[in-house]
Fold each of these.
Amino acid sequence: MTILSNLSIDLTDFSGRILIVSDLYGHFELLLKGLSKLTQSGDEVVVITTGNLFDWGPSPCQLLEAVVYKKFGDRKVHFFTVVG
């Protein structure tokens, strides 16, 4: 896993969904449910998060594993988090 700082994302030519969420609190299944309602199988999705991700909630380890290994079911998810 590479941690990048001062990363900018150019989404000018991106035609997929862009989801911005805050404070997931380890709710991996809820994130998957949201992805399935807002996207279709095989879709490419950008997820941008802020706030707490892994330190609370029902399945923080599953969420961490999904982010590190890009395991979001049958969707291609580009996962970014904003630290401020």
Note: The longest strand covers residues 44-50.
Amino acid sequence: MASTAPATSRIDSLRGGIPCSWRAEHMPAHLRSTEGGVTNRRGQSLSGDEDTVARTPIILMGFSLGTLVSLHAALSHTHAVQALVLAAPAVSAEWTLALRVMTWVIKPLALLAPTARVVPGVNHEWICRDPAFMASYDGDPLNVTGNVTARMGEQLLNAMDAVEQNREVEQPDSAFCATPILFMMGSSDKVTSVPLAQAFYARIASRDKEFKLFDGPFHSVFDDPDKDAVFDHLLAWLHARFP
């Protein structure tokens, strides 16, 4: 994958420390029906190589809401995943009074007005401590900086509930718990909840799991001024399991 946009700097930082023997120059999930390559809205050139896929371990990494997608993908067992990395995991929500009220109205709203932007979005000021990154973030057309739609709010709550109800994470002999898993969060993350992530982590009966809490960073740990420590820890964790 070749990236040109500032918002993809975290990918470029990670690529430099990955050995070519297990680095995939592709995004197979996005290129399943594409031969050659495509260019996305950020201007990234993406290419696929089926031969490389067969030789490369699948390390599934999600950030923020992407961790919820990653967990559902890993628990579906559609693909054989060799490791799972969850950064700033959004696995549950704090059940405030406002959220409890919202659950009563979100289903009819999602049905009658699915695109209505009525669900509060991310607390913008707690995304990242780096002003330069925030300028890039605000200018990225793929980022949602305001309220999200009723349908998205409903689907997020449904997805979180499905993960909460899944008992495979608590079964030591399950395929999920046989997969190495790394949680990474900033101690000052106020977008997702550190205590809720730690509670979910405690449920996981994996034989190889780690929860790494970095002192200081906000939500976007890969873009923090101290991001080198985050990448160093991630690469050391990966190299220990995939020499």
Note: The CA atoms of residues 29 and 48 lie 10 Å apart.
